[in-house]
């Protein structure tokens, strides 16, 4: 076991991999699944691929308001056709067309079997009994073929996809009534420290309002996780241990914030090292250098530093990948690039994460500006509320100049 003052120093990527391979012991997603109605699937993670029940669209339909015609009846110049009916969206009519005949048709309406082209009303005189066509259209123009979007039994959403509003619309269009989703992981959240007071309480000298647990619980809820807590665990070891015992019952993961450094009263580190073979590292990052993990009665434990920005960034960098693994969720895409709106310093040899606001300049470029004048200072809790993203500065960079390109990842 590594002592509290002699920690292994890892890169961000090395520590993340250690969590996924050692903390989770190479385990895959939670195996429990459930069937839920589509209306209850928002935010859930698909456990298996979803296939289209039929062709989408199910029938050839019109892409424009206009006239359904036989292209063979059109000439290079002006054509006049007899209008023999009208088909509205939702209609089941299939009027027959003889030579020189057409029907009025609305957007989305089924195209008569005898028609092969749609002439937009804008290219006609809009007649009701007969219509004169003055424009030119190609064969098949403005006609949406059956199965043009997807064919029956095509996969419309893969396993591991999070059901967003956009995915929900796709599933509905494919005729899906219910989906198989992974069970929500149960994650217990605890903030540690005798100095913590519930928001709204009376502060005495040396006390602060608890915010880390509140932030983590809300973030986890947004991710579709079932949250236990947040609770506050004090610095007395026996009570802390008893609190951990309670949190471990029925949980898939415990997240602790605070008490992970090398101080005499860092209770998370002390208890986890003494009782759970806790592993504590220094990670080449700013903020969030001290990190730890353990297993408590077999339940994985993530231990983050207690400064508010450190906690938030630790979760984004290390907590999200663990949650994604439990859910079998697709990993999010990489960082996008933005122009630095102002300059700041970065500690060489450490990957820096800076809460930033995103705007656009006159050239339409994405601009990232630190959300707080102190940049990535780990104790500036209010910097998070105004941030849209994290700017990520690599380990080899010690200065970001205005106009430099920086990677940004959304919060």
UniProtKB/TrEMBL annotation:
GO cellular component assignments: cytosol
Cofactor: Mg(2+)
Keyword flag Transferase: yes
EC number: 2.10.1.1
GO MF, one annotated term: molybdopterin molybdotransferase activity
GO biological process: Mo-molybdopterin cofactor biosynthetic process
A Pfam family assignment: MoeA_N
Enzymatic reactions: adenylyl-molybdopterin + molybdate = Mo-molybdopterin + AMP + H(+)
InterPro entries hit by this protein: MoaB/Mog-like_dom_sf, MoaB/Mog_dom, MoeA-like, MoeA_C_domain_IV, MoeA_C_domain_IV_sf, MoeA_linker/N, MoeA_linker/N_sf
Domain MoaB/Mog: start-end pairs: 188-325
Sequence similarity: Belongs to the MoeA family.
Protein name, per record: Molybdopterin molybdenumtransferase
Organism: Janibacter hoylei PVAS-1
């Amino acid at each position: 076991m590594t002592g509290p003052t002699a920690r292994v120093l890892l890169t961000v990527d090395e520590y993340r991999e250690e969590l996924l391979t050692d903390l989770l012991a190479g385990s895959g997603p939670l195996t429990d699944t459930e069937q839920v109605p589509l209306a209850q699937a928002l935010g859930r993670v698909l456990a298996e691929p979803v296939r289209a029940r039929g062709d989408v669209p199910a029938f050839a339909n019109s892409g424009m308001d206009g006239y359904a015609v036989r292209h063979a009846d059109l000439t290079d110049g002006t054509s006049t056709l007899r209008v023999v009916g009208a088909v509205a969206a939702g209609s089941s009519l299939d009027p027959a067309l003889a030579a020189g005949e057409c029907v009025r048709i609305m957007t989305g309406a089924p195209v008569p079997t005898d028609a092969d082209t749609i002439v937009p009303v804008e290219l006609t005189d809009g007649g009701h009994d007969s219509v004169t066509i003055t424009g030119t259209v190609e064969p098949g123009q403005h006609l949406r073929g059956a199965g043009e979007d997807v064919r029956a039994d095509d996969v419309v959403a893969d396993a591991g996809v999070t059901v967003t509003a956009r995915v929900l619309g796709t599933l509905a269009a494919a005729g899906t009534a219910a989906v198989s989703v992974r069970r929500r992981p149960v994650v217990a959240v605890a903030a540690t420290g005798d100095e913590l007071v519930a928001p709204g309480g009376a502060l005495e000298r040396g006390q602060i309002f608890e915010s880390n647990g509140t932030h983590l619980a809300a973030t986890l809820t947004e991710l579709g996780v079932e949250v236990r807590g947040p609770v506050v665990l004090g610095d007395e070891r026996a009570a802390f241990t008893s609190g951990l015992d309670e949190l471990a019952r029925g949980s898939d993961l415990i997240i602790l914030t605070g008490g992970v450094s090398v101080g005499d009263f860092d209770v998370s580190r002390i208890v986890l090292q003494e009782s759970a073979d806790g592993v504590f590292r220094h990670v080449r990052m700013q903020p969030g250098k001290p990190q730890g993990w353990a297993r408590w009665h077999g339940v994985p434990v993530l231990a983050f530093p207690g400064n508010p920005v450190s906690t938030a960034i630790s979760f984004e960098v290390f907590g999200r990948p663990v949650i994604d693994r439990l859910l079998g969720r697709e990993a999010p895409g990489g960082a996008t690039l933005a122009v630095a709106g102002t300059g700041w310093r970065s500690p060489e040899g450490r990957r820096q994460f800076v809460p930033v606001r995103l705007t656009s300049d006159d050239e339409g470029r994405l601009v990232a500006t630190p959300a707080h004048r102190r940049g990535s200072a780990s104790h500036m809790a209010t910097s998070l509320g105004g941030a849209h993203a994290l700017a990520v500065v690599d380990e080899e960079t010690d200065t970001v100049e205005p106009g430099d390109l920086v990677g940004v990842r959304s919060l």
